[in-house]
Amino acid sequence: MRKQPSFSNFPASPSAKAAILKTIKQEDNSSASQKHQIVQIPDSPYTLVIFDSPHKIGVFKTKEFLGKFSTTLETGFNLYESTFKKDANYFVNNKLVYGLTTIPEGRHAYVNHKKIHVFPLEKYFSSSRYAWDYKNLYFFYLNEPIKVHSYQPISFQ
Fold first, then answer.
1. Which residue segment(s) compose the domain that 104 sits in?
2. Does 7 fall in a domain?
C-alpha cells in the first residue's frame, strides 16, 4: 500500500490564498466564480486549483518574499477531454517538470529510474459522477526538470 503524504486544503497563509485568487481573476475571470478547491502540494512550490464541472486543474507556482506572496499560472489540464486516460506531462525546454499520471494500485512511479514525488488527486473528485475516471490519479513533480527520451517517460514498479 502506498504511503499517503500529509497535506492541507489551503496554503498555510491567507495571503497566499489571496494571491492565488487574484491570479485566477487576472488570467481567467470567468473561472474565478466557478466552484473550486485550492490544494497546496507539500514540499513543493506548486498549488493546484481544481475546478468542478467541467473538471480542470490549474497549476500555480507560489513564491514568498518578505511575507508577501506572488503566484503565476504555470499551466492548466482539462480533464474532461478524455474519459480513458488522464495522463499529461508538462515540459520546459524539452525537460519534464510535472504532470498527471494514473498509477496502478500498489505501484510507484519512476522517471529515468528515479522515484518521483506524487500527490493523490482522487479524493478531490469523489463527489463527481465521474469519480471512477479519476481513480488512482496523481499529480507528480520533479525536484529539477529532467531531459527524458520519451513523451511518456513514467514507468511503474
1. 14-156
2. no
